[in-house]
């Protein structure tokens, strides 16, 4: 057996159906789940040389997936965050993805940030520079003049507005849309939010 760690669970939400099972153990091989077995299987096996994490007082569930987030904002400060510098927004995003990971979120799809902050966060997590869940990054959200995203920062501003001043990119018509999609892909996005 190539088991490198054992996690004892008090209860476990197991499988795609999330069936509640008590007295389970998770067998880890390197950093991946190899198997889930009953605690009796562990107690009867020779596991003296394998590190065991005892979480038998807790219920374990699979990692959560959040498919629509904006990592540089908080709901309670949505508009205020746009007063901050890009550097402060980036540091705030790093704190937010770490908070999400420690809350049980193991994958997130980021649906729009300023200046491709989400692409930088994704790469920083992958490289081990910061802690966070796996990220899919959209970069700019793409909208039309006067469309979604502009209202967040431009309640009383006059058009036209610089792209850097809004929460995303403005594209009016198919030519501008193609140009902004190409630019986003060049920045390394995983998906396009329209």
Q: What would your notes on this structure say?
A:
This protein is of the alpha/beta class and 194 residues long. The protein has 4 helices and 9 strands, in the order βββαββαβαβββα. The protein has helices at residues 39-43, 86-102, 117-126, 174-186; strands spanning 5-14, 19-29, 32-38, 52-60, 64-69, 105-110, 134-137, 142-143, 169-170. The strands form 3 sheets. It has a 4-stranded mixed beta sheet. Helix 2 links the parallel strand 5 (64-69) and strand 6. The mean pLDDT is 84.
Q: How is the biggest beta sheet arranged?
A: 4 strands, mixed
Order of helices and strands: EEEHEEHEHEEEH
- The strand line-up of the biggest sheet is 3-2-1-4
**Class by helix and strand content?**
alpha/beta
Shape: elongated
- The whole-number mean of residue pLDDT values reads 84
Question: What is the count of β-strands?
Answer: 9
Strand composition percent: 25-35%
* Distance between the amino and carboxyl termini: 48 Å
Keywords:
194 residues; alpha/beta; four-stranded mixed beta sheet; three-stranded parallel beta sheet; 4 helices; 9 strands; elongated
Brief description of this entry?
This protein is 23% helix and 29% strand. The chain is elongated and about 65 Å long. By secondary structure, it is α/β, with parallel strands linked by helices.
């Amino acid at each position: 057996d190539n088991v490198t760690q054992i996690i004892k669970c008090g209860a476990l939400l197991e499988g795609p159906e999330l069936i509640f099972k008590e007295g389970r153990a998770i067998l880890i091989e390197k950093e991946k789940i190899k198997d889930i077995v009953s605690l009796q299987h562990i107690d009867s096996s020779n596991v003296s040389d394998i590190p065991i994490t005892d979480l038998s007082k807790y219920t374990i569930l699979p990692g959560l997936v959040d498919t629509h987030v904006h990592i540089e904002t908080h709901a309670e400060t949505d508009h205020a965050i746009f007063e901050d510098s890009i550097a402060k927004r980036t540091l705030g995003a790093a704190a937010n993805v770490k908070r999400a990971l420690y809350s049980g979120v193991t994958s997130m799809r980021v649906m729009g940030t300023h200046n491709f902050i989400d692409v930088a966060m994704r790469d920083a997590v992958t490289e081990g520079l910061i802690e966070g869940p796996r990220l899919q990054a959209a970069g700019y959200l793409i909208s039309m003049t006067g469309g979604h995203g502009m209202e967040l920062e431009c309640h009383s501003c006059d058009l036209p507005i610089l792209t850097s001043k809004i929460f995303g990119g403005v594209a009016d018509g198919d030519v501008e849309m193609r140009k902004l999609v190409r630019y986003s892909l060049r920045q390394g996005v995983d998906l396009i939010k329209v």
